[in-house]
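Section 3.1: Structural characterization of target chains.
Under the original work plan, the team committed to producing a structural model for every single-chain target entering the pipeline before any wet-lab resources were allocated. The record below documents one such target. The sequence was received from the expression subgroup and is listed exactly as submitted; it comprises 166 residues.
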Amino acid sequence: KSEVECLIKLFDTLVAESSNRFAAVGFDRNMFRDTLYSAFGMTDDMIMDRVFRTFDRDNDSCISVVEWVEGLSVFLRGTLEERMKYCFEVYDLNGDGYISREEMFQMLKNSLLKQPSEEDPDEAIKDLVDIDYDHDGKLSFMDFEKAVRDENLLLEAFGPCLPDIK
């Protein structure tokens, strides 16, 4: 109860500092992105946009206090199952229940370009396609879940969308 109360107070404080048209209702996309950056060090625009969409359950382009608390509950304290579902939603760009090769590339190109590595992005995608257990050319949640249960580090295979331990 005390944690939820703290999250609500934080929400109210952040909303009070804001001077946008959504302030009465909650966070708009920019305010949410500022919060992800300042509180969790997120810098990847695409990931931050996807996290916003995952939190914004009713798709009204505004994070309400309920969406804030529920989203942060998974974000900060979620079970492995909840975090898998959350990450999968972040990576499933078109919301069709699969992560296609194109979606993999979209998510990976940002994180790979930031890493000065010799690895070709196409090679990294080929490595990830190895977790396509049913070999249908796309990752279902079942494929993703099996891979993450085998190797937890794969949870953020397409980019960091969860906060680090600190």
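The two ends are 22 Å apart (CA to CA).
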